[in-house]
Amino acid sequence: MSVGGHFERVAAVYESLRTTDEAPVRKICQLLPDRPVTGLDVGCGTGRYTRLLRALLPGGSRLAASDVSAAMLAQLKAGNRGHADGVVPLLAVAEQLPLRAASLDVVTAFNCVHHFDLGRFLTSVAWVLAPGGQLFIYTRTPQQNARTIWGRYFPGFTEREQRLHSQAAIRDAVRRTGGLKMAATQTFSHPRTSTAERLRAQAEGRHYSTFSLYTPEELRASTATFLARLPSPEVCWVDEHLLVVVSASRRNQVEPASPGTLASKTIKDQARQISAARAGQAPHRRPGGRAQITPSCAQPIAGGDLRQSAQIGGYRA
DSSP characters for 217-239? Predict the structure, then answer.
């Protein structure tokens, strides 16, 4: 199963199976300027981190939430009963953000950067961040992944998961990206407690996309082995994550490749019209295979419109 297919399949139950860490979001907000900001949460999924981030941002801030999965964005809207404050939904791939140059103060990516082409994603972020803007990547390294309950006891979990980036790899990719520089890193440790039955439900529900790398037969057999290996019906462990802080040192002068130069287009529709739109179709592909980025309102959204909009409704982060 492809990663895209995985998220389309698990969208309805995804949020009930995952854990949201509050500490890194609070740390991010401590590092932001004490004024309203314009931001984007990339790879937002159902919006579990976006909700927390939006609640902690200074009053008057504007936040967009982007994802490549229309099903995930639909869950974001359904979970909020069609109403939100200050959030614009975007159906877009992370490597081609349909926003104007230097239009954002902050970009966040929670537990999703391993799904992106890292170099192209960083180039796209360098384009949309204003000078002095910040990118926050919250992720897990391969070493941290191996120490999780899944890495320790689930057959093949560490070996199959080859998409995660080491801290050195992220640092090197940032160094190679014009307009960005490493600012800081911080490791977060989260004590966890769960039951064998809860862990079984998470594995069977494929709460990590790593499980999409198993065939149904392999997943059933591996889950049974995993449960047999657990030391007790209730288990405790510590999950580790890495927060990477990247600063925009100067505006990148080369616009990322994008069909129709979407990042340079001005969108005149008001954000309240965007909020009334339903989550749209997945990004279209033109002949030749290049992705056509289409937000859920079927139009790209310019960062300036987030600042100028008097009211944004329909989705919450």
Answer: HHHHHHHHHHHHHSSSSEEEEEE
Three-state SS sequence of 32-55? CCCCCCEEEEECCCCCHHHHHHHH
Percent of the chain with pLDDT over 90: 59
Q: CA 18, CA 202: separation in Å to the nearest integer?
A: 8
CATH of the domain at 106: 3.40.50.150
* Total domains, the chain: 1
Q: How far apart are the C-alpha atoms of 219 and 40, rounded to whole Å? A: 35
Look at the block and give the residue holding tokens 């399949």. 9
Give the integer Cα–Cα distance in Å for 313 and 144: 38
Residue 99's pLDDT band (cuts 50, 70, 90): very high
The radius of gyration of the chain's CA atoms, rounded to the nearest angstrom, is 19
What is the pLDDT, as a whole number, of residue 208?
83
Q: Return the amino acid letter for 157.
A: F
- Which has more confidence, 276 or 144? 144
Q: Which residues pair with 187 in a beta bridge?
A: 242
Domain residues for the domain of 120 are 3-142+163-190+241-308
Q: In angstroms, rounded to a whole number, what is the distance separating the alpha carbons of residues 22 and 10? A: 23
Quote the CA–CA distance of 191 and 286 in Å, as a whole number: 46
Please check whether residue 216 lies inside any domain of the structure: no
Q: What global pTM score does this model have? A: 0.76
Q: What angle do CA 99, 294, 259 make, to 5 degrees?
A: 70
Query: Tokens 């030749």 sit at which residue?
Result: 288
